[in-house]
Amino acid sequence: MPTFARVRAYAVHILTASGAAFALMAMVFATGGHWEAMFVCLGLALVVDGVDGPLAREFKVAELLPRWSGDTLDLVVDFTTYVFVPAYAIAASGLLPVWFELAAGIIVVICGALYFADRDMKTDDNYFRGFPALWNLAAFYLYILQPPGWAGVTLILALAVLSFVPFKFVHPVRVRHLRLLNIALLIVWAALALVAVFAGLNPGPYVVWTLVLIAVYFCLVGLFRPAAQDL
User: Does the predicted model carry a pTM greater than 0.70?
Assistant: First the structure.
């Protein structure tokens, strides 16, 4: 009979795999044009992705279940929730020029696939290298900002290029520098994003521009890291 520790470890794998279920639900909602529900599902997948790693390390999942690769499982699920479903949402949003809609989705999935295949996507001090394929967040900002078509094209192309530019992008939990501030801003961002979703992705300028300022902070904070970063 399997031990309690092994059952608990496998439950962590099931938790990680549940992100794929949220991806499927998000895609079903997206194909029906239910964008708010889609973002709720993608948000739940983000929560799963935030808690499964610490649980896996705490319960020694890799040691207890060497047959199943948690890293591979995590990459498979993350690609669907961070890249594939958002690529459809971007292409089908109606917020881009018609000539660029399908191209945008193709650019997103190709750049996202290449990024996830990069063995050096993270640095030794726990930063991401380049734009970390957060296309779910790019889609979210596209929907709440509803920029002019040319600005949407510029956003997609700029993020695609930045996926391969070796600047450091902060991981708000694992990077020690300014960790408490990063986590606090992450909590504020999550609360405001929830407000935006329940406001039909039209929450008003105060919420929108606070979300934009937090995004700008996270994009830039890695450029001002200490010269010698603690691991």
Answer: yes
